[in-house]
Amino acid sequence: MPHKVYIGYKGIFGNEPFSESDFLKKIPLRLAIGVCSRIGSMLYLRQNENHIQAALLDFLIRRQNIQVKSLLINNARNYLNGGGQIFLSLYLNAFLKYCLENCKDFEYNDSDITNDLLIFKNYLIQADKLNYGFSISLESKDQNDFFRKNNWPIYIGQIHHNIELNPLTAFFKGILILDFFKKSEEWTENYKKYLEHYEVSNHTHFLQILMQFIMEAVTKKDQFFIKTDPFGIKFFSNFEFNIDKYKSSKDKDLYILENPLFNSGDDIFMVLNYNYLTNKLFHGVIFDFFKRLNTKNKNFIEYKSKIGDLFIEKNLFRRIIKTIFKENFYKIHFEYKVQNNFPDALIIRKNRVFIFEIKDSLLSSNAIQSRDYIVIEKEVDKFFVQGKGVNQIGKFIDKIANGDNPIIQDHGLILSKIEIIPIIIYTDDSFDLPGVGDYLNKEFQTQLKNGSDFKKINDVLFINFDFLIEYMDVLQSGTASFERSIIKIYSLMRKRRRLSERKKTIEHLDKYHQKFDQYYHSVNTVDEKRESYVEFVYTELGIKDSF
């Protein structure tokens, strides 16, 4: 995420006062939820588009007289034209929580147009509160360390709200995880009871119902509610928000995450958060399935570890790797002569060796809520440096150099001609922090003892698992293929690193520390509406068999 200028209360309203008592007297809960749902639907998958920011501004001030509208638009224009933002899902969630905790339900007088400004003002005030409490840390080893220390605490709390979850990717994974449960001896009986609970005959039906309404937010302008039938009412009641349960819950964000639909009556559900509804397609399935397991002494860590090992690593990840790297061009190994600590995937083409480790780990809520760099850094170390992280990749490379691993010799490769590309795949979007790749690479370099024995050992690449799914069709061949793109990305990374060291500006540091997918789009032009994509994924991942 590049740095964005947020337009706060003073940027729009200057020193104009706001009356909280007026807001609470005039704005009922149902209206506040409706406004939040409407804004959320417009932001969904589009919050970085300038015309959406302008459209939302117009939505909140459209009933004001020309003088008021002109003043507010002029105040906002310079910020918006410069790429600034007024509306973000993060801020909307803060405003929604304020309304849920403070607003009452009563009859509403829609003729008072000043109420629109009360809503807008309070939204900005709640947004301003989120930006309090951050201070600049001046203690750092270098400019990249300074960048991380002053960005990770800010970004960590924003990711779950501001990241744009891809509903198609979540839908694919949801079908596959439920298909995995269906075929697993350990979970097949629980799978049947899971479907019985939702009163559906097939898990594809369960996910298609959710997907249908999520996609309406994308395809229909300003669609912020679900109009349904008696079956839908019963189905969606599983995710229905209850104000009393919300107020008594210890973790209010978690309660909204699990219950993102507000029943407004007349067969209509309003969506409190579209990202949270999208979350129901995959991550929600994992948590919900566990909650309904019919076993004693349930252990979530053990359950999640099994999913990571048996489904993510040994099932879905391997299918994706075989799709991207065609075996007539690449030699693919997921294990080799029963060796311990073998990478999750090792791929060879000529003298180029790709080493993959995949980590299906969740960033702790403690780290997310901490706003503390040290706490976040310890989590990154725990999951991606220690254990199956850069330490293990470094040890594996040293084994190759020492001749303790026969795979290189068996393929007739000579050490001095080998180029190594180390890659860590992560599955939790919470790790979408700028600069993690650079941090891991510094740790990786300290692990290498025999790096000079090879032609080249490249920097560690840190890649989101969902990226591989979203682009698996174009990653397999052509100019945007995985291997060709990586060569171009390494070149661009070196260029940006030199510029950031020379210029020492936030803009250049931002560009250097971009995520892998941002680098990918910098070196490739990819059609985001590829007509054959869905059919390709259905075929390659075996999703067709589930229908």
What does this structure look like?
- The strands form two sheets. Strands 4, 5, 6, 7, 8 and 9 form a six-stranded mixed beta sheet that branches.
- Helix 4 runs antiparallel to helix 5 (66-81), helix 6 (89-102) packs across helix 7 and helix 21 packs across helix 24 (436-447).
- 56% of the residues lie in helices and 8% in strands.
- It folds into three domains: 9-132, no CATH class; 165-298, no CATH class; 303-470, no CATH class.
- The chain is α/β, with parallel strands linked by helices and 547 residues long.
- Helix 24 links the parallel strand 7 (419-426) and strand 8.
- The protein has helices at 9-13, 20-26, 29-43, 50-61, 66-81, 89-102, 114-130, 143-149, 152-155, 159-162, 167-183, 188-198, 203-219, 230-236, 243-248, 252-258, 274-279, 283-291, 300-324, 365-370, 373-385, 390-402, 407-410, 436-447, 465-470, 472-475, 482-503, 506-512, 516-523, 533-540; strands at 225-227, 261-265, 268-271, 331-333, 345-349, 352-359, 419-426, 456-457, 461-464.
- The two termini are 37 Å apart.
What is the total domain count?
3
Principal-axis shape equals globular
Mean pLDDT: 90
**Beta-strand proportion:** 5-15%
Radius of gyration over alpha carbons? 25 Å
